TrEMBL record:
InterPro entries: MethylDNA_cys_MeTrfase_AS (IPR001497), MethylDNA_cys_MeTrfase_DNA-bd (IPR014048), MethylDNA_cys_MeTrfase_DNAb (IPR036217), WH-like_DNA-bd_sf (IPR036388). This is Cysteine methyltransferase. Keywords: DNA damage, DNA repair, Methyltransferase, Transferase. It catalyses: a 4-O-methyl-thymidine in DNA + L-cysteinyl-[protein] = a thymidine in DNA + S-methyl-L-cysteinyl-[protein]; a 6-O-methyl-2'-deoxyguanosine in DNA + L-cysteinyl-[protein] = S-methyl-L-cysteinyl-[protein] + a 2'-deoxyguanosine in DNA. PANTHER family: METHYLATED-DNA--PROTEIN-CYSTEINE METHYLTRANSFERASE (PTHR10815:SF13). It comes from the Bacteria. The keyword Zinc-finger does not apply. Gene3D superfamilies: Winged helix-like DNA-binding domain superfamily/Winged helix DNA-binding domain (1.10.10.10). It comes from Parazoarcus communis SWub3 = DSM 12120. Residues 74-155 form the Methylated-DNA-[protein]-cysteine S-methyltransferase DNA binding domain. NCBIfam families: ogt. GO terms for molecular function: methylated-DNA-[protein]-cysteine S-methyltransferase activity. GO terms for biological process: DNA repair; methylation.
Amino acid sequence: MNVPPADIVLDLPFGRFGIHLIGTQIREMQFLPPDTPLRAPREDAAQAIVAKIHAWLGAPSHPLQLPLCSRGTPFQRRVWHALTTIPAGQVKSYGTLAAELDTAARAVGQACGANPFPLAIPCHRVVAANGIGGFAHASDGYLILAKRWLLANEAP
């Protein structure tokens, strides 16, 4: 897998996690393969972002408020906003979320897969009607393990 270098690569309980920055804002966050080399945050703003992520992992019932660059199509932003309304410890199926947004489940899945800010926009809280479903366009491997860990960490 060819992954562009991240400004920060963290070793979190669910695996490696990369953060790409533009100045003091996050341009993208991504789950990375387990063998990705670590990169510590160097700037104060980057260290503050990492501290917020660690605090959120310990108390996931609180929203993860991070400085995010605006991205996505209007439809994607609508889906991503809906994801932020799903409380920690709860899930919705792609079909349920699609019905609430008056769209197709596949379109919701595509928007979830295109989410540039996992954790801050909790796409892991959307599952298939018959199981956990995919995650970041994957159906197995380290991405699904990360989704399972995040859901278990948020469970009441």
